[in-house]
């Protein structure tokens, strides 16, 4: 005697055995799943059901009124395995079954054979070894370094549990088809039977099983708590990542935009081309730089979205790979550029020229800086500002580099006559190139009626480019001469002790008598 | 490369063409189409045809109407649309060209 179920298939009424019903339902579900990528699945399923109904009605007679599992099997043979419905999946057809095994094997937690969370059993299935060995490794890790616990918890949260039959099959590495699902279900029943048969044996093992059950239920409770905590943490982390990534993208874009504008409006392009050694244009470098800083935050945003499991298609695999490749190229580009740039700054050369300064004992030297209205309004050296160098046009419309990197040093001598030393320096790829650049630094001063006027700037032709050019002026005065420094020299002799400058900041606009190691103020109040 | 897979792929390739050809002289319902294809040993299991029919219908090459059946559920009678007929014509030309090409190639091979 068997229980039957009445079903409605494509509008027709059938009596069907319970086991046959399960078989048929399973079959239709699997067929449906195998056509997930197809459009109009429900319509196809309706057609299939209609056809099955037709085949059923052909097989029903007055003597055979109920659909048995034999009939269902026949019909499945006619209709074909779920794989046969898949008309596009060429890989599926070309790969042999062994291959499919490897492809479909996925990592799941095996809760049925679990002691704690089923991680070990799952890993055992995945690597095809007995779970015992995996557990031994865990124990070693726990006692060895303690990292095992943390790693286990992470894996526990990350690896999904195998709940459905299909998941269990792919955990075992078996292809998902009717035969295997059936096998799995049968195995399940078989196991139950086996268990019943071996009740006596089980009694002996009761302690073991009780331990397993207890440990499982305790760890399951712990697991659900931890996984909620972990998921919350992941969500927060994801949101933080997205926010910081988006923020980084916006700020870098804005800063690059403004930089780009400055580069265009101010003679910065020219400035940039002076910096440049390799004839790479500014816009190109800007793009490379932008790419290299904007791609990492994109990935941060992507990671955040991943953690939130929004399922968004923000960056697909192809986009990620190509972005990564582009980023690597940009970085290499920057590295090459910096190396070339560094190479061009490798050697430093100095060119020194010393002239007599007709200042004797008891003479008074008035020292001031000149300014050139063509180039700048200020007579000032700002050592903290990077725009010491600018590009200007002289009266003949030739482009010149103008720099205010002038250092003024005052020293004393035992000689009866003073001197002025002008040391010009520059950098270059080779010493010869550096020296040539240093020689081409144009710097001048005038001396007239005990007044020394130093240029507050130097110039050089634009073809020499910016290569850290500078001028150091050392004014040496005989003892007992008097120095009166104009206030505008202030910023040019802001020196460290190592420069051995006798003129200290704040002593400008005073009459200072030169002593062997110091300057003596003649008109200071105290 | 398995022989069975290659065979199945070859069959699947011409299946759409054959379904359209079966429907050219007269409209038919699934069982009739299946019968013709099975007789020609083009089809081993029936399952493959359903997604194909739906796809052909969705791309406007086929249309169907419902007809009552004396024995089973109502039947879907499929027929070619105008564009289906044009499509079939194109496929016929291609098929003939392909056939000639294949026979030229295979005969050359056997001569060597």
Please bin the fraction of helical residues of chain A.
40-55%
| Shape by Cα distribution of chain A | elongated
Instruction: Report the count of strand segments of chain A.
Output: 16
Compute the number of helices of chain B.
Answer: 4
Low-confidence stretches of chain A: 90-103, 261-274
| N-C termini distance of chain B | 25 Å
Topology order of chain B in helix (H) and strand (E) letters = HEHHEEH
The top level CATH class name of chain B:
Mainly Alpha
Query: Strand content of the residues of chain B, in percent?
Result: 5-15%
Question: What strand order characterises the main sheet of chain A?
Answer: 10-11-5-14-15-16
Distance between the termini of chain A: 126 Å
Mean pLDDT of chain A: 77
Largest interface: A-B, 33 and 27 residues
Structure explained in plain terms:
The complex is a heterodimer of chains A (526) and B (112). Chain A is an alpha/beta fold and 526 residues long. Chain A has 4 domains: 1-90, no CATH class; 95-197, no CATH class; 231-344; 347-521, no CATH class. Chain A has helices at residues 18-34, 41-59, 69-79, 90-94, 97-104, 119-127, 131-144, 147-158, 165-172, 178-197, 199-204, 206-265, 268-275, 282-308, 317-344, 431-439; strands spanning 4-9, 12-17, 66-67, 347-357, 364-370, 389-393, 399-403, 406-413, 418-428, 445-448, 451-455, 458-461, 470-478, 482-485, 511-514, 519-521. In chain A, the strands form 4 sheets. Chain A has a 6-stranded mixed sheet with strand order 10-11-5-14-15-16, with no helix packed on it. The radius of gyration of chain A is 43 Å and the shape is elongated. The N and C termini of chain A lie far apart (126 Å). Chain B has a single domain (3-111), classed as Arc Repressor Mutant, subunit A (Orthogonal Bundle). Chain B is built from 4 helices and 3 strands, in the order αβααββα. Chain B has helices spanning 3-23, 30-39, 49-58, 82-111, and strands at residues 28-29, 62-67, 75-80. With 112 residues, chain B is α+β, with helices and mostly antiparallel strands. Chain B is globular, with a radius of gyration of 16 Å. The mean pLDDT of chain B is 84. In chain B, strands 1-3-2 form a 3-stranded antiparallel sheet. Classes of the chains: A alpha/beta (526), B alpha+beta (112). Chains A and B meet through helix 2, helix 3 and helix 4 of A and helix 1 and helix 3 of B.
């Amino acid at each position: 005697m068997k229980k039957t179920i009445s079903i409605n298939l494509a509008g027709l009424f059938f009596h069907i055995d319970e086991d046959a019903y399960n078989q048929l339902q399973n079959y239709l579900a699997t067929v449906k799943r195998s056509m997930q990528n197809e459009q109009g699945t429900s319509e196809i399923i309706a057609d299939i059901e209609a056809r099955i109904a037709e085949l059923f009605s052909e097989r029903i007679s007055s003597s055979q009124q109920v659909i048995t599992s034999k009939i269902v099997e026949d019909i499945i043979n006619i209709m074909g395995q779920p794989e046969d419905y898949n008309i596009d999946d060429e890989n599926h057809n070309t790969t042999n079954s062994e291959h499919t095994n490897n492809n479909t094997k996925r990592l799941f937690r095996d809760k049925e054979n679990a002691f704690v969370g089923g991680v070990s059993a799952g890993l055992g299935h995945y690597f095809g070894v007995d779970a015992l060995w995996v557990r031994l490794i865990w124990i070693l890790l726990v006692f060895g370094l303690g990292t095992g616990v943390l790693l286990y918890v992470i894996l526990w949260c990350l690896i999904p549990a195998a709940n459905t039959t299909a998941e269990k099959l792919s955990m075992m590495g078996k292809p998902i088809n009717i035969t295997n699902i059936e096998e799995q279900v049968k195995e399940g029943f078989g196991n139950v039977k086996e268990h019943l048969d071996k009740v006596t044996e089980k009694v002996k093992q009761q302690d073991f099983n009780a331990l397993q059950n207890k440990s499982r239920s305790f760890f399951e409770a712990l697991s659900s708590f931890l996984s909620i905590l972990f998921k919350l943490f992941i969500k927060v982390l994801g949101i933080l990542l997205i926010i910081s990534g988006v923020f980084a993208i916006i700020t870098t874009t804005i800063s690059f935009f403004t930089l780009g504008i400055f580069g265009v409006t101010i003679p910065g392009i020219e400035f940039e081309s002076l910096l440049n050694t390799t004839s790479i244009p500014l816009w190109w470098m800007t793009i490379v730089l932008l790419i290299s800083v904007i791609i990492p935050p994109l990935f941060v945003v992507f990671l955040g979205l991943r953690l939130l499991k929004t399922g968004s298609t923000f960056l697909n695999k192809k986009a990620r790979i190509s972005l990564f490749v582009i980023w690597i190229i940009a970085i290499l580009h920057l590295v090459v550029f910096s190396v070339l740039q560094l190479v061009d700054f490798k050697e430093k050369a100095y060119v020194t020229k010393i002239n007599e300064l007709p200042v004797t004992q008891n003479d008074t030297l008035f020292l001031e800086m000149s300014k050139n209205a063509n180039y700048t309004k200020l007579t000032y050296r700002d050592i903290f500002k990077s725009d010491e160098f600018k590009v200007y046009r002289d009266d003949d419309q030739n482009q010149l580099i103008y720099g205010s990197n002038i250092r003024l040093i005052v020293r004393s001598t035992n000689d009866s006559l003073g001197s002025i030393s002008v040391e010009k320096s520059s950098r270059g790829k080779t010493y010869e190139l550096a020296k040539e650049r240093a020689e081409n630094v144009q710097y001048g001063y005038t001396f007239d009626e005990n007044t020394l006027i130093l240029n507050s700037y130097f110039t050089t032709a634009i073809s020499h480019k910016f290569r850290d050019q500078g001028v150091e002026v050392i004014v040496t005065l005989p003892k007992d001469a008097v120095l009166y420094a104009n206030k505008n020299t202030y910023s040019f002799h802001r020196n460290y002790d190592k420069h051995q400058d006798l003129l200290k900041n704040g002593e400008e606009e005073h009459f200072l008598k030169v002593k062997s190691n110091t300057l003596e103020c003649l008109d200071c109040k105290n | 490369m398995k022989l069975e897979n290659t065979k199945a792929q070859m069959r699947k390739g011409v299946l759409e063409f054959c379904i359209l050809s079966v429907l050219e002289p007269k409209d038919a319902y699934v069982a009739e189409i299946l019968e013709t294809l099975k007789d020609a040993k083009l089809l081993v299991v029936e399952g493959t045809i359903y997604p194909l029919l739906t796809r052909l219908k969705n791309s406007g090459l086929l249309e169907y109407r419902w007809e009552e059946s004396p024995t089973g559920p109502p039947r879907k009678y499929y027929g070619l649309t105008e564009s289906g007929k044009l499509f079939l014509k194109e496929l016929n030309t291609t098929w003939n060209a392909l056939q000639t090409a294949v026979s030229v190639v295979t005969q050359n091979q056997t001569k060597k």
